[in-house]
């Protein structure tokens, strides 16, 4: 596993935070004060947002 910041992860690439695997998506505004930039690999309805400087693990 490689460690990098979320800013370095490409859209569509999978990454792990706290042993949960996510897929990065194009940032989407969910409401006036909330955005999402990834979703859980096994459930695309579970979207969340991580800041770009979040350290994540990737396969490559």
Detailed description of the structure:
The chain is an all-beta fold. The chain is built from no helices and six strands. It has strands at 2-5, 14-17, 20-31, 34-40, 43-48, 55-58. Strand 2 and strand 3 form a beta hairpin. The model has no long low-confidence stretch (mean pLDDT 96).
Topology:
Blueprint: E1 2-5, E2 14-17, E3 20-31, E4 34-40, E5 43-48, E6 55-58
Count of β-strands: 6
Helix content: under 10%
* Biggest sheet architecture: 4 strands, antiparallel
How many DSSP helices?
A: 0
What are the secondary-structure elements, in order, as H or E?
A: EEEEEE
Unreliable residue stretches: none
Strand content: over 45%
Structure in a nutshell:
The chain has no helices and six strands. The protein has strands spanning 2-5, 14-17, 20-31, 34-40, 43-48, 55-58.
Characteristics:
mainly beta; 60 residues; two-stranded antiparallel ribbon; single chain; four-stranded antiparallel sheet
